[in-house]
């Protein structure tokens, strides 16, 4: 799954706004609805009473009573009644307002724009607003609006600048800590090259330069704890009163990263079944490449165990192997690989040894203490497709998935995440991966009905003169496909004039090695993949170079599994930090890793677009 700057409203902006208008704001997540069962009845009744009072007073005093109208609009906005908020604002003539009411009107209109995901409009509304007389609460609101708007527009540099300005205005300790965490999260989400470019800009405040310096240190010395400790000490000398140091102390980042967990004995548990031979070989070789390429002083003992399945019971020996590894001194376990073995293991009893499973438990399972989960999940990539398209400003989707188990998994994850974000799926079609002609299916997807025409010839003559079709306002296509199917589907989508609809896909659409002739039919497709596949800097990693030289053919086709094994070793010392520190990330071969509440490692991938049969990287810090 991919992480982007948030496009939903933050608590901070509404805290400041409620101060300005004299309301107590009760935050709720985007996409949720309110009900009497989720709030205390007396709170809801009080709010309704206030709204009725405002409404009646406003009506009694006529349309000129702008103060009450603005209060009513603010109350509607709090309750996500955006249409009513807009109606009230449209009924007010801004040119008739006093400077104080103009300020409130513009801030409220900007808040409405943010609720409607229009960061550009919000920024226009607050432009030059500092010329008005703002009190402290209104200044807090202003900078909070700017933060959200710039994050919505993908301008992280401007968002961070405004967070630093906001820091000096916040008086509430909780709000201040939240702002610092979000600031740090934004800094750690950008690439080292971007941080370096920002550092070279002129007119940086000392506070901003200190944040940038610290973020660069964490990225540069992530795998070198002793060097990081020394670098942080030197940073403290340069910035003795910098607020970032308080963040380090409060969150425990300093201790967790400079004193990583380094087990003396690691057990690697992988399946012995023949059908997993190629995958196991790739993961194992990647794991040992990381082990032998580790230049730190940590040198654990590695013990390898094969997991076997009894053909009569279809049960594996995972429990006995786990027990054996424990008895032989394992302090950490990597594996098992299959979902069945993992499920069998966690159903036995609590895990006494910290374990990094190379698969995910089903969602029905609660997080298990000492169990971390890491895999190349198609569901995570499907969610990433939704998040990237939403981040890029799309909201109405057409979806194409294969009619098999993999397609069902992709469809479920994609449509669920898309709905959570606020997107709409206007049409969904499944296809047979063995077919070659998808014309009828695509006609249905694009709402092109041949029955409107007398014959096929007339249909195709008319098609050539049609504007590119829009299915009830669709602005994006989601495609779950492997290369063979995608190379048939994409040209047929173009034939039916859908070239104006951007196509988003997952890493499965790309076979992992560059072949411009083969990939020419994929031009325009936006997709994600891991650093070892798309990033040339990552491909200079000694581990990558060693594996590519030692296993050229296997590595070419199974590069992603080699990267999984590579990261499963390298991330071990930092699992505790990833678990405990919100926003903490780890630069891996499989992606930028972070841990969610279920103790799953989520991968932030790189995005690219095919052009001329080659891929061009997209900066995830800016929108398409």
Task: Describe the structure using short key phrases.
624 residues, 5-stranded parallel beta sheet, 7-stranded mixed beta sheet, 27 helices, single chain, disordered N terminus, alpha/beta
What is the secondary structure topology, with strand pairs?
Layout (H helix, E strand, L loop, with lengths): L10 H11 L19 H21 L4 H13 L3 H9 L8 H17 L3 H7 L10 H18 L2 H12 L5 H17 L2 H8 L6 H15 L4 H14 L4 H9 L1 H6 L6 E7 L5 H16 L8 E7 L1 E2 L4 E2 L1 H10 L4 E3 L4 H10 L6 E3 L13 E3 L4 H14 L4 E7 L2 H17 L2 E8 L7 H7 L10 H10 L10 E4 L3 H13 L7 E3 L10 H4 L6 E4 L1 H4 L7 H9 L1 H19 L4 H6 L5 E2 L4 E4 L5 E4 L1 E6 L2 E5 L6
Parallel strand pairs: 1-2, 1-5, 5-6, 6-7, 8-9, 8-10, 10-11, 11-12
Antiparallel strand pairs: 3-4, 12-16, 13-14, 14-15, 16-17
Helix pairs in contact: 1-5, 1-7, 2-3, 3-4, 3-5, 4-5, 5-6, 5-7, 6-7, 7-8, 8-9, 10-11, 11-12, 15-26, 18-19, 25-26
Cα Rg: 27 Å
Physical arrangement of strands within the biggest beta sheet: 9-8-10-11-12-16-17
Percent range of helical residues: 40-55%
| Euclidean distance between termini CA atoms | 18 Å
- Major sheet summary line: 7 strands, mixed
Mean pLDDT: 84
Question: What portion of residues belong to β-strands?
Answer: 5-15%
Query: What is the SS-derived class?
Result: alpha/beta
Low-confidence stretches: 2-45
Shape: globular
User: What's the helix count?
Assistant: 27
Number of strands: 17
